[in-house]
Amino acid sequence: MFGALDSLPSLPLAPYPTPVEELSGLHAALGGPRLLVKRDDAIAFGAGGNKVRKLRLVAADARRHGADTLITCGGVQSNHARATAATAAKLGFRCVLIANGNKPERPTGNALLARLFGAEVRYVATRADRAPAMDAAAAELRRAGRVPYVIPLGASTPLGACGFVQAIAELGQQIEPPDVIIHATSSGGTQAGLVAGCALAEWPTRVVGISADEPSAAMQRDIREILTGLGPLLGFPPGRFADAAIEVDDRFVGGGYGIPTPESEEALEMAARRDAVILDPTYTAKAMAALIAAIRRREVPDRETVLFWHTGGQTGLFA
Ligand SMILES: Cc1ncc(COP(=O)(O)O)c(C=O)c1O
Known about the structure:
By secondary structure, this protein is an alpha/beta fold. The protein has two domains: 5-49 and 156-318, 3-Layer(aba) Sandwich (Rossmann fold), CATH 3.40.50; 51-155, Rossmann fold (3-Layer(aba) Sandwich). It has helices at residues 24-30, 50-64, 79-91, 109-116, 130-143, 158-172, 189-201, 216-233, 262-275, 284-296, and strands at residues 20-22, 34-39, 69-75, 94-100, 120-124, 148-150, 180-185, 206-211, 247-249, 305-310. It has a six-stranded mixed sheet with strand order 1-2-10-7-8-9, with helices on both faces. Strands 5-4-3-6 form a four-stranded parallel sheet, with helices on both faces. Helix 6 (158-172) packs across helix 8 and helix 7 crosses helix 8 (216-233). The longest helix is centred in the C-terminal third of the chain and has 18 residues, at 216-233. The structure holds pyridoxal-5'-phosphate.
């Protein structure tokens, strides 16, 4: 069903499956459809989250290439950078992180953890400076006789996205296909993998990504591109997912990346108080705000099941 998925080298990093639980408190408060949560926030590795699923495959590829250093990038509080630093620590790579933003006087949240995991952090001024800085770091390491492996933003490569095809295979062992999966989307790898996984499993499930920053059209383009590369990795033609719907909702970004909105603040508080689920201000609280709004607007029939894919990031609360 999933093509060559099982033959892709993959390092477990953590035990799976992650739990699927009822959001019974939110359901009691909101009514409407059945609400489930897939707890990737509870991945028992390096503070968890969606990036661990991608890094299982990407780190295995780095090892296959004989790499000794992982290089990646993100904001100062990047969950992906922190998860990469953890992966490097566990698997014996060195790690260089290119962070856009100012060097914090006293690191907190993900920045604190990345340092604790032993990563070297280099700061650049803007997002646009990140990719050239990664290339420069790789060239510098090569000159020094090292073997760097550059992981693009969010590990949102076709290979990284296969981690979420694995995740759909995992979910299929736990529950019947939900009617809707709703999750935070940003660099697109999570959504590409979920869309591909649902298509290959022949699920009727709608996958709805709630943008943390980019406009819908740009996100859809990025996700389509990842899907084009993903097909051949699993032994399918590049156009295998050309007809798959890519739904991205950018109405919950508000003032921008990482800036809370009244709706995201309400969602953060409701999830904590009703179900003791901890969200983060940048990604998951905005995705939960979208779920709450959809239920209040009665956009999802009561007979349906909505699964909130918790992509982690709780460390962002302590930034
Ligand atoms: C907590 C969290 N949720 C969701 C996302 C979005 O995932 P993706 O980059 O695969 O779109 C990210 C990272 O960008 C994240 O850190």
